[in-house]
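Ticket opened by: R.M.
Priority: normal
Category: complex prediction / small molecule

The reporter submitted a protein together with flavin-adenine dinucleotide and asked that the result be attached to this ticket for the collaborator who will pick it up next week. Submitted input follows.
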Amino acid sequence: MLLDDLKNIVGRKGWSTSADVLDPHLTEWRDRLRGRALIMVSPNTTQQVAQIVQACASERVAIVPQGGNTGLCGGAIPDESGQQVLLSLARLNAIRAVDANDFSMVVEAGCILSDVQRAARDQGRFFPLSLAAEGSCQIGGNLSTNAGGINVLRYGTARQLVLGLEVVLADGTVWNGLRSLRKDTAGYDMKQVFLGSEGTLGVITAATLKLYPEPGETATLFVALDSAQRSVDLLARVRESFGDRIQAFELISDRCLRFVARHIAGSVRPFAEDYPWFVLCELVVDEQQALLEDMLGRALEHELIVNAIIAKSAAESESLWRLRHSISEAQKFEGGNLKHDIAVPIGRIGEFLTRGDALLASLMPTARLVAFGHVGDGNLHYNIAQPADADAAAFMQQGTVLTDAIYELVADMGGSISAEHGIGVLKKAHLKRYRSATELALMQSLKMALDPQNILNPGKVI
Ligand SMILES: Cc1cc2nc3c(=O)[nH]c(=O)nc-3n(C[C@H](O)[C@H](O)[C@H](O)COP(=O)(O)OP(=O)(O)OC[C@H]3O[C@@H](n4cnc5c(N)ncnc54)[C@H](O)[C@@H]3O)c2cc1C
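Result attached by the on-call engineer:
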């Protein structure tokens, strides 16, 4: 009965139960989880989403919203029961409006992030959210995970880029909060409740996004360092010279570059010499090329950096960024892979890495650290690849010891176990350990208030 209702709501092109069609939607990006689903429905209007949720609510059947399925915590994968409805937002993908004078745009949840960026650019505006998965992740997924990416330093996380939301609530009611106001203190800011809630409190169907002027002329630097701590010192120096015109400031370890060179066709290591750490930085320079060269000269003189490249063309800049964006993909070829998307205070990144090295050396000296990330936000992807030639499954099992130790260190340093990827299912136990009983109870009461039947992405986050 429910299946017939769902099929009628979306029409023939809007559903599938075929194993071949569903398979990529039921598998987590790293293949860490596989789920099953009653049906996948792909509505193409908000009204259809509302009807689907209403139909599921009346039968108390769970719904798992899914965007581009690039999330790294398993939030978009249904459980193994085969009783959950997979709600793909892929066909709800219209750019409803771009208002250049208002510096805002209204987009539907299923728009691919790179299409959102392009639509803004076509009107001479800039939408700053940018991450390696931007060619396949969807804006609805980005907002539901409060995605970060490479431009947070200057523009903030996804949360800061939203002016309004349209959300389908757990009973199928549509909340239209698509305002584009910069100031609005009328009551609680309800959109913030749904942003970062990983599909557990409502289904985001559209958003009003904040746009910016195009950043102007930028320079891409690739800098070699002899220690990770130097990246923090360098960031302070670049900030003194360029203020808030730092678009991105990414730390990359030598092992990351080696993996990319080994597995990603066409990638070239930027320096002939070996160095342990690198920073990839994007700066708005406008007419101030001389200031940039002067700053780099002083950094070399004070031994903050040991070598530097300034990209001479857009193509060179792109190939440097391709190295950065290929790291996660390259790591997949190296077997078992533990991901730790952590945040610590920016000034303590060097200390974190030193203490992390000591932990790894004591617990599993042959494991291979693959550290990189958004050092300007205090956010590291402190990933660990299995020892070469180890058994991947055995490594992943033993890995819980490493993960627990790393999260203890993060907590000890006043950090967070999830900086930008969310909790999904993979980090649920750790959320419980590292948030206070009071905070967890607040989260539970929010969930109860907005989804009393627990049908929206049950078993995720809390
Ligand atoms: C190579 C690579 C690089 C990455 N780099 C970054 C990075 O730099 N920064 C970063 O933050 N993340 C990064 N990620 C993680 C991932 O891309 C982000 O979490 C992204 O925001 C997920 O978007 P998605 O559309 O794929 O969402 P999905 O994976 O489909 O879903 C993620 C969560 O959101 C929920 N959801 C999806 N759409 C909706 C909706 N419309 N309404 C309600 N809930 C919804 C799902 O149920 C799930 O819980 C990276 C991933 C990969 C594979």
